[in-house]
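Shipment paperwork, digital attachment
Item: protein structure file
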Amino acid sequence: MIRTLRRTWNRLLGSFFGRRSEGDLADEIDSHIRMLAEEDIRRGLPPDEARRRARLQFGSVESTKESYRDQRGLPALDILAQDLRYAFRGIRKNPGFAAVAILSLAIGIGANTAIFSLVNAVLLQPLAYEDPQRLYAVREIHPQFAALGPIPVNPVHAREWANQCPSIEQVGLIRSAAVQVAAGGEPASIPGAQVPHNVFTLLGVAPILGRTFLAEEEREGNDRVVILSESLWRSRFKADPLLVGKPVLLDGESYQVIGIVPASFRLPYASGAEVFRPLVLSQAEQARLMGNFNYAAVIRVRRGVTAEQALAEINVVEARFKAGLKATLMPVHELVTGRARLGLLMLAAAVGAVLLIVCINLANLLLSRMASRSREAAIRTALGASRGRQFRQVLTESLLLAVSGGSRGILIAR
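Attachment content:
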């Protein structure tokens, strides 16, 4: 085992550093041929005839060199190195062809990489929530607004679901509300949302700094606290860790920053929100059984509970309001990706077609280039190159173009 490893290591070193001994090998072969020639000269042969017979007696110089290289290094690695060197020379001799091929591949691969990254993040990867398969968006169906389909929910109804439906673990309300931010730069309108204290635990999101809301901060007068998104914290406040605990001016009033949530956090109904404030319901809203369908609702069902069970319990509660109300459930993943799914899939198909066209055009270019290299192939065949050897050479050139175009395509995608 040790001998095999040592022999393999020596051959590997020979493949990488054997070029230094090529000159010594050539000198040794020449010296051997001269010795054979001198021996014939001593026997009385003319010098020219002696050298000719010495070369014939020695045999093929190149075959001897190849045999030595095979014993000195790893043949497969040496052949690959030769193919790569030849491929580089071929590209340098045809810069126009190489530029067109590499640029075409870069555009096709770059576009597909960028779109697939987007499709993967939006459609294929699970949402950045804890157990997203247990999260559902709830909307209500009111007979008077049947033509509009499902509508947002009444906050009183949502409260009753939380109290009377054993299949539901938590209910969270969301109300979008843009905010005028005057701190950290020029005043600007920033997308925001008002949420209750349990929304962050419902979605399974923890702040990277500070804390989330408390239950007592949902009362008027105690609600002057705010949570910022990481993206806003970095872009507008230079990622200052000391910002937590400091006041900022929102809508002309002072709010204390209590936490920073990760940049990956997105509310199901207000995905662009970057400023989060406590949701405060007035006494009138808490007593209004009908109307006020202005809130988005998200529920988390208990483990082992199906969406059908939860919906049946919600509809039992809805029937108690005696207005013909019903509810609908939609997985949060479908809510988040539903609008973008069709557009992203169509865009992915379009850029996939572009890559297919690029590959077809590049194949035609390579075929036309091979036709012009028929003389070169004939010479290589006459020198002893097999079909497999020539195929490996063409494959190496194609792979070199593919790697060059692919690496530039990744840079374009970024």
